[in-house]
Structure formats: C-alpha cells, structure tokens
C-alpha cells in the first residue's frame, strides 16, 4: 500500500473525531508444497492484505481491521473505529509511544529480503529430495512427508504523531518427517529449517537424512522408573526451557502481578556468567526489525547479564502502568492493541559441548523431544512430557520414552549449566542445557 494512503486513513480518522490515530498495513504472499511417499500431496498459495486502524478519543481507544482496502472500505473502517472508541471504557495507560523514542531513518540494512522467488516446481523438487533422503535411511519404514516453502511479508506503520516506517522480509523453509519401525514400536523423527535467504538453507538431502536418522535412533525406546537425576536439554529444543522466562518478564504480566519473577528485577536468577541477549539488528535474523510495532527504536539488550535479570519487556502501555519507559518490545498484528515479544533471543554459549555436559553429569537423561508443557505462572512450578536417551558413564546407553520431568523454574534457572553447542536455527536459540538434578516421572 502506498504510504500516502495510510496517512490519508489517519487524517480521515482525525477528521472524524479521533484525537490520535495509527494505521498499519500488512501484506503477505506465500507458496508451500508438500509431498508424501513420493507423491505430490498439497500446493498452497496465499496472498493476503490487511489494514488495521487504532484510534484514541481521549483515553478511550478502539482497533478495527479488514482485508478490503478500497476507498469505500477505508471510510467504513474509520467510521466504525471512531464510533467504537467513543463507547470504550477509559484506559489511563493507553496511548502512543513517546515521540522522543520513535525510530528515525535511515534504518539499518538488516538484509532480510532475498529477491529470488522459487516456482512451485522447484519447491516440489526440494520437498521430494528431502523426503527421499529420509526414506533412504536404513530402518525408516514410512514417511510423514516433506515440504518446502517460500514467503514474502511487508509491514508499514503510520501515526498521527508523525511516525512512518516500513519493513519487509522473505522466508524459505524445508522440512521432513520420517517413521521408523512397525506397529507399537514405531518412532518418528523430524527436521526442518527456516531462513531469510535461500542460500542459507541446508540442502534438502541433509535435512531429510537428519529426519530419518532421528527416527531410527529412537527405535527400541523403553520406559524407565521414576527417579531424580541430571537432565540435559538438547540444543534443538533447549529454548523451550527458557521461553517461560520471557512470559514472566513481560510488562503486562508484571503489571498484573501474575509472574513468578515479579520481585526479581536486578537480582541474580542464573549462575554467574549466564548471558541472555535480545538482538533486533542481527543481519538476516528471523526476528530482526529496525523498530518495534509502535515505531520505537529497537536496541540490543542483555536481558540476563552475568546471571542477573536486568529488565522487563515493555511496550508503551505496560511501561506507563509500571512507571517505566518502553524497551522497544511492542508487538501487534493488524487487529488489537500491542502486546510484547522479543526479537532474536540468544542464550550465549558456555564452555562444554554436549559430550562434555554428559561427561560432567555422568548418568542421566538427554531430552530430545518435548510436548505438553505445564506452567504455574505465579509460582514457576513447571513440568513437561518428553522422550530422549538415557546416558551412563557420559555415553548414550538407550532411547527412553513416556517420561515427565518437573521442577520449579527459579530453582532450575539457578542451577543451569550452559553448553557450547549453540546453533542459530531460528529467532530463539540456545546451546544444550544441563540441570544437575530434576524429578523424572516414569513407569
């Protein structure tokens, strides 16, 4: 959408009685192809446009959105938004970000756009190659398929405070899922990668082979008795142990008083040396953006610095409620008021690789799959279903399944040992993580 059209929508809202207004426009195109057992299973093409308008009448606000961007539809959008705002309850914390915090161009070049657009035939070839490589692994007996995808997104924000900015990005992905064994002894394995530039993808064959190898490695998984033992979370999923922290330090949760970390700001909650950084300006990063969804300049931050919790994640509304300043973590779609989210989150690596962590623990559980997490947000009590491998004398002994691990996250975070095997696979990344003792519920 032309920038002037967004300014026209904002101006129309002001003319209709809004004291302030902001308009967002989002456009997405995508193409994905899936195959299974060597046959084409689905081709999906998406083209979507959304226009969102948030207006303020005093301290009352309303947000409306629609996919029709014609002049007539825009006029109705404005009329509806202002009428809704006049009827909304007052919110003393609502409003735009402070003007002095708004991003000003030129914005950094984060290299998020690849001009290459693959054809459906190319994506099909990649999906077939990934699945074929998975099925070629000895012991693989079936397939859940292979897929390949491309996407392009564009986002623009304009406000009556004078901010105007846009960012765009492309995405490429390949995945495969394999099944090994027969009957009740079947095991699944999967692998997938998503990147901004096509050239950064691993080969389809490498992704497929990894999926097949994971499935086969799980064959013969057994149940174990309940115990307490060291637990290592593999780097591919270790961020799942850290993600509850992000919800717990979000401004809205702190403002509501519903966080197990609400009294822990500027306190040590991890071991000395632990660093958790959020970098919105990583080149080609899946979470990179020059400004947040309120137009606030984004900056690199150490959320955990030498084990100490340094900040909450704040948008403008939660910052006002807490008497603080926004941290540039506002996140929103075309509808609804902003929430909060991180950008490129990284738990910085430690000294020991996965083998080193197993050697230090000697005996315990290596978790390679997690499902059904449960969290008490007020206390930090946490549990999750998982499967993986039992290791003895620092070496993998046998695969295990149908296990639940549990503990309190404040206690867990304080005892985490961070591995060195960091791989940048997504917008949130962590090395493998060792907890010296966790309750394990088995048979």
From TrEMBL:
**Ranges of residues in domain Metalloprotease TldD/E C-terminal:** 227-442
Output the Gene Ontology terms for molecular function: metallopeptidase activity
Q: Which residues form the Metalloprotease TldD/E N-terminal domain?
A: 21-85
A GO BP term here is:
proteolysis
What is this protein identified as? Answer: Modulator protein
Upper classification of the organism: Bacteria, Pseudomonadati, Pseudomonadota, Alphaproteobacteria, Caulobacterales
Organism name: Caulobacter flavus
On the tree of life, the source organism's domain of life is: Bacteria
Its family? Belongs to the peptidase U62 family.
Every copy of the Metalloprotease TldD/E central domain together lies at: 117-219
Xref: InterPro entries: Metalloprtase-TldD/E_C, Metalloprtase-TldD/E_cen_dom, Metalloprtase-TldD/E_N, PmbA, TldD/PmbA_N, TldD/PmbA_sf
What does the entry list under GO cellular component?
cytosol
